[in-house]
Amino acid sequence: MTTPRLAITLGDPRGIGAEIVRKALADPRVAGACRWVTVGPSGLECAADVAIGEWHPRQSEANAGRLAGKAIAQAVAMCQGGDADALVTAPIDKHALLAGGYDYPGHTEMLAALTGRDVAMMLASDRLRVVLATTHVPLREVPMRLTADVIARTARVTRDGLRSAFGIAEPRIALCGLNPHLGDGGRFGGEDADLLAPAARASGLLGPFAADTVFVRAMRGEFDAVIAPYHDVGMTAIKVASFGTAVNVTLGLPFPRTSPDHGTALDIAGQGKADASSMIEAILLAARLA
Predict the structure, then answer these.
(1) CA angle, 273 as apex, 270 and 275 as ends, to 5°?
(2) pTM confidence score
(3) What is the spatial distance between Cα 234 and Cα 120, in angstroms, rounded to a whole number?
(4) Within 13 Å and on the Cβ side, how many CA atoms surround 181?
(5) Counting Cβ atoms within 10 Å, is residue 169 exposed (0-12), middle (13-18) or buried (19+)?
(6) What CA dihedral angle connects 89, 100, 232 and 281, to 10 degrees?
(7) What are 232-270's pLDDT values in tens digits?
(8) Which ranges of 165-242 would DSSP assign to H, the alpha helix?
(9) Is the distance from CB of 112 to CB of 72 less than 8 angstroms?
(10) Which domains does the chain have, with CATH numbers?
């Protein structure tokens, strides 16, 4: 069996990306699971095997975003060209990415654009898998963005990903409701009855189920994954269940992609106290999926 080779980006050079990558690569579990190539600017505490520029601490936010975006594009090209079997990404800053010339709200949207694939954002741990139907959009826009087509596409990508990546032949996928108590017969909104219920039936999903119970039921083994209608309801559930060990997985790409479940932590960068647990889990999962 060939040991998988991972392309690992170092993330925003102002953040903790290089630190958690360095710590993760020193973990014996990682060393035994894969080979790797780090991609990012030189000048960081974790040396870049593929350097895409040089970082100096006094450089601008825009330059940090430009270097982070360039590293992502280079690592994707390596995966598409057969030079890497999977992609692991350290955290980026969305404002810096935009300032650096990359008009994407985050990794997921950028990876979809670079590969031309329909993708879905999954947060996975040994206790729970959550997929987001809508990602980085304001809460007030969710009812407009959450269409039958979006639910159908998310269901398809999730089902395919659970089968191909996680080996689940007949995935049990639940749809989380949007409104309190599924709208309570229309008193608190009609989207659950008018949109989510027929979309679930059409897409072979279970539910919709109220948000205050569906994730508990999934953790008890009733469902293989839960599709959440918007970002924070899904992210809150996975972080309460598995903070520090959950992994972000992009479903639908032509190669596995994972990342830790946290951000750049600019406030503690350079202090040596960043926890690499989620990055370790991201690398180990990418190696298993490759």
Answers:
(1) 115
(2) 0.93
(3) 13
(4) 5
(5) exposed
(6) 10
(7) 999 999 999 998 899 999 999 999 999 998 999 999 998
(8) 191, 197-203, 211-219, 231-242
(9) no
(10) 1-117+254-290 (3.40.718.10), 119-252 (3.40.718.10)
